[in-house]
Inverse folding.
C-alpha cells in the first residue's frame, strides 16, 4: 500500500498552532502509522519569497507575538475584522497561490490547525485535488464566529475538542457526520509519559522548599509583562517562572526582591518535569497552557478582563464550568486567587482529575477513518 502523505498546516502566531502540529506529528510517528507527515508553515505558502520580512525585517506573525509579549491585546479584535475583510477582497489571489502549492506538493490529506484561512485552503484544495479530504482541528475550546475557525456549511471535516465547539459547527450548517469530537485539546505526547520524579530531591536541587505550595507562572513562549506584576504581588510565594525566549523578562524577575524561594527559567523543553514539581498554574487562558497544566494535575489561575483576547474568553468559562481553577478580574487579585486554590486544593485536584483529555492519541484514528484507510494494526488510541 502506498504511503499516505499528510500535510499539517500551521501558523506561528501565538505558538499554540505549531505546538499542536508538532504534537500530532510525534503521536503519528510514535504509533507507527504508515504515513508521511509534513509540517507546513502557512506563511511559507502565502509568501514563499519572504517578501514581507525583507521589506519590514519581520515576518507577519512576529508582530503579533510581540504584541502578546507586551500585552498590547486590546485592539486585536479590530485587526481580526481587517484581516477578514482583506481575505474576502483577496480571496481569488490567495486561492491561486495555495492551489499552486497543492499542485506541487500533492498531499493525500490536508489538516489545518490554523484559523482564518480555512475557506481559502479548502477552496484551493478543491481546485487542485478535489478528492483529497480537508480537515480542520480546532486548537481553541470554542469558535469565535464569524469565520474564525468554522466556515458555515463548508463540506469538510471538523475535529472539535469540546461540546461547545461541536455544537457551533453543527449550528453553522456543517454536516454532523463530518463533525468529530475528541476529549480535549491537542498537547504533546510527552505530557502523558509516566516518569517517576523524586519531587523532594528535585525541588531541593532547585533551592525550593518541598513542603511549601509551589506555583508555576508561564505566559507562552515569549512571556508577558504581566509576569513582572505577578512576581511583585507574590513576593512571599514560592514560584517557578518560565519566561520562554524573553531573556530580558527573566533577568528582570531574577533581580526583583522576594521573601520566598523562586526559580526563573528561560525557554525549556522540560515543561512537564517542572509542572510535576508544582501545585497550581498561573498564566494566560490559552487552550494549550490550560490543557498542559490540567494534564499534570494542576488547577489553573487565569485572568479575564478587557485585555483578554476574544478567542480565549470562552476558555475562562470552561475553567469555571469544570471547576478546575479560578478566574480573576484583575492581576491585583492574584494573591487572593492563590489563597483560594491553596485552601481548596483537594477539591480542585478532584475536578482536574475528571478531565481525561487524550485528543492527540484519538485524532490519528479519526484521520485514518477520514482517509478511508483500513485499520491494519491494533487500535492505538490508548497507547502512550
Amino acid at each position: 500500500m502506498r504511503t499516505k502523505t499528510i500535510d499539517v498546516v500551521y501558523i506561528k502566531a501565538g505558538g499554540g498552532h505549531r505546538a499542536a502540529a508538532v504534537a500530532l506529528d510525534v503521536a503519528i510517528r510514535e504509533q507507527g502509522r504508515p504515513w508521511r507527515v509534513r509540517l507546513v508553515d502557512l506563511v511559507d505558502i502565502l509568501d514563499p519569497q519572504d517578501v514581507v520580512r525583507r521589506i519590514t525585517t519581520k515576518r507577519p506573525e512576529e508582530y503579533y507575538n510581540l504584541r502578546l509579549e507586551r500585552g498590547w491585546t486590546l485592539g486585536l479584535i479590530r485587526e481580526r475584522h481587517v484581516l477578514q475583510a482583506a481575505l474576502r477582497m483577496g480571496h481569488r489571489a490567495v486561492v491561486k497561490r495555495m492551489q499552486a502549492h497543492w499542485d506541487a506538493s500533492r498531499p493525500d490529506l490536508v489538516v489545518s490547525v490554523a484559523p482564518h484561512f480555512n475557506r481559502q485552503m479548502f477552496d484551493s484544495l478543491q481546485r487542485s485535488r478535489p478528492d483529497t479530504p480537508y480537515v480542520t482541528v480546532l486548537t481553541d475550546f470554542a469558535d469565535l464566529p464569524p469565520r474564525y475557525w468554522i466556515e458555515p456549511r463548508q463540506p469538510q471535516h471538523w475535529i472539535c475538542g469540546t461540546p461547545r465547539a461541536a455544537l457551533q459547527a453543527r449550528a453553522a450548517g456543517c454536516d454532523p457526520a463530518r463533525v468529530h469530537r475528541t476529549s480535549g485539546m491537542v498537547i504533546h505526547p510527552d505530557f502523558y509519559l509516566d516518569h517517576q520524579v523524586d519531587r523532594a530531591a528535585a525541588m531541593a536541587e532547585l533551592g525550593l522548599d518541598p513542603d511549601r505550595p509551589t506555583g508555576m507562572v508561564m505566559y507562552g513562549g515569549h512571556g508577558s509583562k504581566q509576569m513582572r506584576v505577578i512576581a511583585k504581588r507574590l513576593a512571599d510565594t514560592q514560584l517557578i517562572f518560565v519566561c520562554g525566549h524573553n531573556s530580558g523578562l527573566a533577568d528582570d524577575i531574577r533581580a526583583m526582591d522576594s521573601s520566598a524561594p523562586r526559580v526563573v527559567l528561560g525557554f525549556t523543553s522540560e515543561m512537564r518535569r517542572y509542572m510535576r514539581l508544582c501545585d497550581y498554574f498561573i498564566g494566560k487562558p490559552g487552550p494549550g497552557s490550560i490543557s498542559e497544566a490540567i494534564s499534570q494535575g494542576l488547577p489553573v489561575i487565569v485572568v479575564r478582563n478587557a485585555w483578554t483576547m476574544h478567542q480565549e474568553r470562552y476558555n475562562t468559562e470552561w475553567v469555571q464550568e469544570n471547576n478546575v481553577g479560578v478566574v480573576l478580574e484583575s492581576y491585583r487579585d492574584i494573591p487572593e486567587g492563590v489563597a483560594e486554590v491553596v485552601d481548596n486544593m483537594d477539591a480542585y485536584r478532584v475536578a482536574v482529575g475528571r478531565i481525561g483529555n487524550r485528543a492527540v492519541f484519538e485524532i490519528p484514528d479519526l484521520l485514518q477513518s477520514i482517509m478511508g484507510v483500513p485499520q491494519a494494526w491494533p487500535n492505538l488510541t490508548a497507547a502512550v
Notes: Residues 49-58, 375-384 have pLDDT under 50 and may be disordered. The chain has 17 helices and twelve strands.
